[in-house]
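Retro notes, item 3 of 5
We never archived the inputs for the zinc ion complex last cycle. Fixing that now. Sequence and ligand:
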Amino acid sequence: MKTERTPYLWPLFLITFLFMFIPSIYAQDSTLAQAPIFVDEEPVNTKYLFKEGHMLVPAMFFKHTGAFVDWNREYRSVVFKGNEELIALPVGKKFTDEYDSGTWKRGVLSTEAIEFKGDVFVPLVDVAKKLGMNIKYNPTLNRTFITTNITIKSNSIKSVETNEKLVALTFDDGPEDYYTPKILDVLKEKGVPATFFVVGNEITKYPDVMKRIVKEGHGIGNHTKSHPNLRTQWSSVVREEILSTQEELQRVVGRKSDLFRPPYGAITKADIKVLNEIGMRNIMWSVDTLDWSGLSADKIIEIVHKEINPGGIVLQHNFQYGRLLDGSVEALPRIIDDLQKEGYTFVTLQTLLAKEQSASIERNQRSFEGKLKE
Ligand SMILES: [Zn+2]
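Structure as it came back at the time:
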């Protein structure tokens, strides 16, 4: 009996043995090591891997330095654009094509760019140097530091410095036809303006709701066409996401916006540069109601009371896939009543930002007059 059993047991044992190991091999593949790399003193967390002794990072990492990062489908290469530099790294090739004085020239790479798990990885040191950046590894700290040569005018705003008790309510991700009309009804009843950061695809789906937002005197902002995380998008895609939404706004309500809010609040220096080139400002928030997570009205009101300040920008939503915004809609009239009782006035973001500009002109004037007196 024993000799008969063994042949059956061996394969079984082998299969069990293999199954024990296969999942862990997969797990290892999908969880790449991560580490912060310091870009102009700011830590940027990134995946990385080593090949032939060189550190490779996803090409998208370089968007944090302010360089544009794009994909050339024809040549299957990643294209980096720094201040002056234009460099292409074809995947699987140990060379670069570098644009210099009107012609493309071949450059040397220490190791080639590779595709791995849906990302293109490029050699960190090579690309940084070719983009004219200073890169140093500090072995004591076990940290890499990059000093970029790219200066980007910051156009991000979280709140406005003002002594006036002004507050801007903002609603993201719409328009749609379930929560948006309810929110618009409340705002109309209370006679309060807000600002809607709209998604291009939703404008196309709900043009009438979009028109109602504008007709009722609310401010509008651009929230991309399809709501992607910009950190994972090629620079040309980011530009297209923003510009196509501008065009859709123009088509449906006859005007564009100079305000932008990035989906998930995720943005890189390169994306800020795109906004600067288009002439738009990046609007974040100072009060995060977390309403999208399905919080109750009471919880949302508690957050608003705790975080509100004059010049504050409140983040709310008017579209959510799981329809978890009942608490947010219920909280809205109470937020308005409570804050008005505390002496707050509700304004659109456009109005709030105008206050900031006049405040900073006044500050500059004061310091100028102060200098004259000295
Ligand atoms: Zn959003």
